[in-house]
Structures are given as C-alpha cells and as structure tokens.
Design goal:
With about 70 residues, the protein is an alpha+beta fold. It contains 2 helices and 4 strands. About 25% of the residues lie in helices and about 10% in strands.
C-alpha cells in the first residue's frame, strides 16, 4: 500500500484544491419580462434577446379548437 513519505502542507493542499471553489452564477435581466435569467438561455415565455423564439403549444392548440 502506498504511504506518503511526508505530510502535505496546507499550502500544497490549498493549491491542489484551488479550482474547487464555488463560482457565482451570472444573471442578466430579461428585456421583455424584467425577470432575471441566465445569459444566452431562452426564457420561460419563449423569448431570447428580446425576440420570441418559441411559441407555446398550449396557445396553438387553443386557437385550433376555437
């Protein structure tokens, strides 16, 4: 079984774990609804960059029935 020859110092241990820190999530304000969302993601109502990209199927089905 492998056993370390010397104790690992706090500095070396910290350098090894330096990339494990939690990063903050970037958030931007949605132009149409004013809600906060992640950048480069489509919002819940189907808007991306101020333009409607996805039309919800529920609205389409309601129009077909009427």
């Amino acid at each position: 079984m492998a056993v370390p020859k010397r104790k690992t110092t706090r500095m070396k241990r910290g350098q090894r774990r330096s990339h494990l820190a939690l990063k903050t999530i970037t958030v931007s304000e949605n132009k149409t609804t004013g809600e906060y969302a992640r950048p480069h993601h489509i919002s819940k109502d189907g808007y991306y960059n101020g333009k409607q990209v996805i039309i919800k199927r529920v609205a389409e089905e309601a129009e077909e029935v009427a």
